[in-house]
Amino acid sequence: MRPLELLGLAAVFGAFVGVVVLMSTRQPLLALVALGITFIVALVVLAMLALATAPTGEERDDLDEQDRSQGH
Q: Contact 46/1 with Cβ under 8 angstroms?
């Protein structure tokens, strides 16, 4: 996944939780805190899952090409 995709997905998760908390408690500060915590946790979890996957053939070719262009 690209970094913007990770940030976007984490932002969607955070916004969803923030809206749910806001609608259930009617406390904007609590909703903002829940949004922030959810965003950070989702971002870390998604990044760890992205690191755990093996690169595909295209990704390996791209990495090899980048290594060659840098003189490695």
A: yes
Q: Where do the structural domains in the chain lie, given as residue ranges?
A: 3-69
Whether 9 has a pLDDT exceeding 90, the answer reads yes
Question: For residues 31 and 60, what is the distance between their CA atoms, to the nearest angstrom?
Answer: 42
In angstroms, rounded to a whole number, what is the distance separating the alpha carbons of residues 52 and 28? Answer: 36
> Does pTM surpass 0.90?
no
Report whether 10 contacts 43 (CB < 8 A).
yes
Q: C-alpha distances in angstroms, 28 versus 12, 19, 20?
A: 18, 9, 11
- The amino acid present at 40, given as its one-letter code, is I
